[in-house]
Amino acid sequence: MFHQIKRYITFLLKSTNQHGVHSPFVFNLVTKCFYDKKYYEAYNSIFDFRKSLLRNKSKIKVIDLGAGSQVMKNEWRLVSEVSKNAGTTLKRAKLLFRLTQYFKPQNILELGTSLGLATHALSLGNPIAKITTIEGCPNTSAFSQKLLKNSNIQNVSHINGDFNDEIEKLISNKYDLIFFDGNHQKETTLNYFETLLKTATNHSVFIFDDIYWSKGMTEAWEIIKKHPKVNVTIDTFFWGFVFFREEQVKEHFKIRI
Prior knowledge:
This protein has 10 helices and 10 strands. It is an alpha/beta fold. The strands form 2 sheets. The protein has an 8-stranded mixed β-sheet, with helices on both faces. Strands 1-2 form a two-stranded antiparallel ribbon. The protein has helices at residues 2-14, 24-34, 42-54, 79-85, 90-103, 117-125, 138-150, 163-168, 186-196, 215-225, and strands spanning 59-61, 76-78, 107-111, 130-135, 156-160, 177-180, 205-209, 232-235, 239-243, 251-254. β4, α7 (138-150) and β5 form a beta-alpha-beta unit.
């Protein structure tokens, strides 16, 4: 927690808004997507989906294959508690919706389905996209799959398994957007990044959740930024965005959202 507080203070001191951005690509993304204040009908569905999770008092036996939760230690967990403490926030779910609406990715990969809120938002942003989501815990995977089906989300393929094994089966694919939200450890995050680089195109975006979750995750983020194939990154504190646009000079941004 001290690491996050310290890093957040530093972030506030160094970050900016659209007025500190000179890249047309990043400026448009910030002004037309990050700071888009329009109200979308899909927000109602996102709100209702999250509200149903927060009210759900059923329990799931959770098997953590990654770093685990900083708050919840019991293996049997209330859905409402998981949603409250570990699930995607409403603000971030709305941003995911806007991102898929803005970039219109055709092929999306999500590492870490959890309860399906992020998956739900990604789908609403581009209902014709092909979304593949991987969840390590079989019980959580089954729960989210049923919930998304009941919400009439039809463009999602669910995979239950260890990320290390499953992503190796996917490297022949090309993904326009990958959301890394399943393992918050330095070495595994870097391994997923290196492995899935094979699936990236010039216009792909990788989004890393909780880049300041721990010292190790922050170290992983700094290593990713320096990778020779990475040309543009955006640090929003809670997420790190990675772009591979060869036509742009290497540049890193810190943007307040």
